[in-house]
């Protein structure tokens, strides 16, 4: 497992709730810089750099499962027992894998534009000539999993019983919106919310995104 870098903020809540924020492919914890302060009154916030990104190590070995294991190890290290998992794109995939691995500590789940766990036909990414601020090796590894996901993942969504919000970006997104709707329907306590803002809508409309998280978590 890889020890992950993270940015902490917010205030510890009386019930020990924490909000863990997982970025998308090629991003880092800074993508949550506007959203995290808006969620700080829900509990301590932790914006994580996944392996190969930001200030976290670049071991060269990448998969969604390894990223899941890294995040679970971080939750153990920080002794976080009541966690709201918020993930964007790749981070959404990692978030629901963490929820599957640690259901006892998952309080709620927010998935923003995750890759639906069904076979897709995304083209191979072309490596840019300029250096990237993340380990490029993560791109082909994750792209292969997005195109050919573990066939068990779709059925396992139905075992995640905590309140789950799937946030879709509308017609400006490259993610098939009908698949996100079908994915949301798999969760026993799943809801779908569309905020027309494209794939990275939390950066375009941080307040609206934070409000949707708060509406999910508030009644818990």
Automatic annotation (TrEMBL):
Record-annotated membrane-spanning stretches: none
Origin: domain of life: Bacteria
GO cellular component: membrane
Ranges of residues in domain AB hydrolase-1: 19-211
Xref: Pfam families: Abhydrolase_6 (PF12697)
Molecular function GO terms recorded: catalytic activity
Entry-linked InterPro entries: AB_hydrolase_1, AB_hydrolase_fold, AB_hydrolase_sf
Name under which the protein is recorded: Pimeloyl-ACP methyl ester carboxylesterase
Annotated source species: Allocatelliglobosispora scoriae
């Amino acid at each position: 497992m890889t020890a992950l870098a993270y940015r902490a903020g917010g205030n510890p809540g009386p019930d020990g709730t924490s909000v863990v924020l997982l970025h998308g492919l090629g991003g880092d914890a800074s993508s949550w810089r506007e959203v995290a302060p808006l969620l700080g009154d829900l509990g301590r916030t932790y914006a994580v750099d996944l392996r190969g990104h930001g200030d976290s190590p670049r071991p060269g070995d990448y998969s969604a499962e390894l990223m899941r294991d890294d995040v679970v190890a971080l939750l153990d290290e920080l002794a976080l027992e009541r966690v709201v998992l918020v993930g964007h794109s790749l981070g959404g995939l990692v978030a629901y894998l963490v929820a599957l691995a640690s259901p006892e500590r998952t309080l709620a789940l927010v998935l923003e534009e995750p890759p639906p766990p069904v076979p897709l036909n995304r083209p191979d990414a072309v490596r840019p000539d300029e250096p990237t601020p993340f380990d490029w090796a993560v791109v082909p590894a994750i792209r292969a999993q997005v195109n050919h996901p573990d066939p068990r993942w779709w059925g396992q969504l139905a075992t995640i019983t905590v309140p789950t919000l799937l946030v879709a970006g509308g017609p400006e997104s490259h993610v098939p919106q009908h698949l996100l709707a079908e994915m949301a329907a798999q969760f026993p306590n799943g809801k779908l919310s569309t905020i027309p803002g494209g794939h990275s809508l939390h950066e375009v409309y941080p307040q609206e995104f934070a409000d949707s998280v708060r509406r999910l978590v508030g009644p818990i």
